[in-house]
Design the sequence.
């Protein structure tokens, strides 16, 4: 297992014959009341290993929104597509973005027509945005040659939610429905085998059909989290559930189960919202866990 810090935007890891590359849309330091309300500067001070990479000098959480590209011997898989440009969003910092994300993706060697699979861990706003781009007033698929894989129960839940007049409706209509209408979506099971090296792992709780992404190649393993865990502080406090978790009791049970399975193994945990360095090994720390990196 090898990692390389390229710069603030790009980070890569090698797992056997599989390479994983992180491309950042945005990183930020901020108050956690809308994500992890328990994670105050006072409580985070009790987890000293978080500093300085995962919390700022003021004790606030560092978080990242990024995509992860998995390169296997046969497929180029893009996991989660961040927030996206030009989209109306209720979070002010995410509204009508104009980032260089697509240019950064292509500068890293991933032209949009080279992506074979777009894999969604779930269908929240900050995971589906670049599914589509705005052209001549219409939302069109960003990755025209890709199959967009979505877990069936997750998709059906958001189809039902989209019937309501809510911010979720807008997200579904501008970032999910257009790729469905284009015939690019494949609905898959929670434990779908994407290719010999990549498989979905059911990690329910954050959303009804949430799945993480397991990688295995030549005896090396890794797990891309999605949002069953948002921040490394939840290794030390797995009972801290995100305010947006669909089922907080189930999300806590999922964290405890998955972290216990990973603890003291050689598996690499790659956090979908972890800031740099974004990945490490899970080790036991008293009655909980910490990230060794």
Sequence:
């Amino acid at each position: 297992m090898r990692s390389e810090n390229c710069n603030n935007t790009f980070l890569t890891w090698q797992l056997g014959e599989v390479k994983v590359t992180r491309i950042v849309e945005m990183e930020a330091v901020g108050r956690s009341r809308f994500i992890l309300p328990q994670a105050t500067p006072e409580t985070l001070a009790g987890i000293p290993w978080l500093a300085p990479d995962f919390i700022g000098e003021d004790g606030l959480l560092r978080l990242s929104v990024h995509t992860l590209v998995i390169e296997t011997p046969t497929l180029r898989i893009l996991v989660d597509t961040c927030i996206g440009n030009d989209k109306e969003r209720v979070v002010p910092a995410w509204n009508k973005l104009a980032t260089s994300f697509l240019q950064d993706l292509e500068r890293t060697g991933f032209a949009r027509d080279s992506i074979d699979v777009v894999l969604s861990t779930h269908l929240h706003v900050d995971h589906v945005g670049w599914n589509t781009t705005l052209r001549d007033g219409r939302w069109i698929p960003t990755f025209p040659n890709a199959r967009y894989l979505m877990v069936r129960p997750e998709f059906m839940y958001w189809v039902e939610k989209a019937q309501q007049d809510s911010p979720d409706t807008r997200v579904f209509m501008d970032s999910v429905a257009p790729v469905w209408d284009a015939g690019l979506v494949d609905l898959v099971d929670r434990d779908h085998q994407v290719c010999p090296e990549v498989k979905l792992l059911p990690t329910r709780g954050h959303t009804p059909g949430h799945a993480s992404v397991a990688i295995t190649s030549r005896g090396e393993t890794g797990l891309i989290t999605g949002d069953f865990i948002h921040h490394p502080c939840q290794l030390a406090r797995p009972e801290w559930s995100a305010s947006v978790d669909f089922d907080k009791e189930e999300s806590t049970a999922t964290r405890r189960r998955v972290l216990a399975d990973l603890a003291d193994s050689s598996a690499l945990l790659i956090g979908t919202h972890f800031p740099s360095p974004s990945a490490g090994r899970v080790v036991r720390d008293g009655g909980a866990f910490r990230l060794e990196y």
